[in-house]
Amino acid sequence: MKVLVLNCGSSSLKYQLINTETEDVLAKGLCERIGMEGSAIAHQPAGGQKVKELVPMADHTVAVKNVIDKLTDKNVGVIASLAEIDAVGHRMVHGGENFTSSAVINDEVLKAIEECNDLAPLHNPANLIGVRSCQDVMPGVPMVAVFDTAFHQTMPKKAYMYGIPYEYYNKYKIRRYGFHGTSHDFVSKRAAEILNKDRKDLRIIVCHLGNGASVSAVKYGESVDTSMGLTPLEGLIMGTRSGDLDPAIVSFIAEKENLTAAQVVDILNKKSGVLGLSDGLSNDFRDLVEAGAAGNQVAKGALDAYAYRVGKYIGAYAAAMKGVDVIAFTAGAGENNAEVRAMIGEYIEFLGTNIDPERNKIRGEETILSDEGAKVVTMVVPTNEELAIARETARLV
Ligand code: AMP
Question: Which of 201, 158, 203, 197 is CA-nearest to residue 176?
Fold first, then answer.
């Protein structure tokens, strides 16, 4: 089956066409600046050159048409016609409590997704626009919604409730949901496979350390806790997001800087994290490691705070699961940044991880970092959210 995987943002659209029998990516690309001046599509067929073109794209429907044009193009295309696309898998950010797994898209499902728009006002409407655009451009092609939140719906109430008046949960569904679920599910499954074990027999901590970052506790196959909350702002210090902080800081900064609460939250999302902690130097861990090695104390401080927070979460989740068997690092920094992994490694050594510094040098490959005989197996497992979405789509269609 050929599945088109789409990830629609408010002004962007990322895509991959995946053959789900071979699990090969046939082509991938990105439409940027949709609805703005200078919109462009970058498209790359497997094994071929990447092509980038400036194309006016007034909305997502035009963007989807451009994607189809590229996929069926005589020179850079990989399929003869639209009819070869068997299904579309959409990445959906928030499924609230309405979705505990992926769903085939129909009117009822769309209505249930819309009900969650309040919970992710920036992401969900954009995801829905992507669905509607596909319905326009390829009517009749089955579509599946795969939610970032669904995998974490197994969290027990004690893990997802905030210590605030209960009425806010009843009235507004304010609770912890967690994100990156597709990745936490994929990586925990793959970690068990690599170890030749059943995920149902393992307590796994997955550290998804990308620009956005979260940790999850996957106990015997189910997510029982994760560090992101109502929104992706909670938890770890991230590239540009603050992660956990004293909520009183919001009104404090608002008053001192003459800002609204929404403006402060925007700063916590976009100008904080290691970018903020490094005094604006960078949100990219490569830059911070390089600057830190060159003696930049502010960059080093940002990395120290980052690694400390990840280490604390791992400790907390070992307690939450009353033990841990496997710790898996994934996403940009988790897969590729040996320095960051080594810094985190120092905090979790006491669990019996025995990370071998030689093995820890790898980048982006499935690798067991621990010595043989380690009490807790620590590993790198590259994530692949697009493949996970394609698999889910094929399964449901
Ligand atoms: P992601 O959001 O998963 O794309 O992750 C982005 C983060 O991963 C950035 O902060 C990068 O510094 C880090 N990263 C990506 N590739 C590498 C690499 N080859 N070496 C070190 N860090 C990397």
Answer: 158
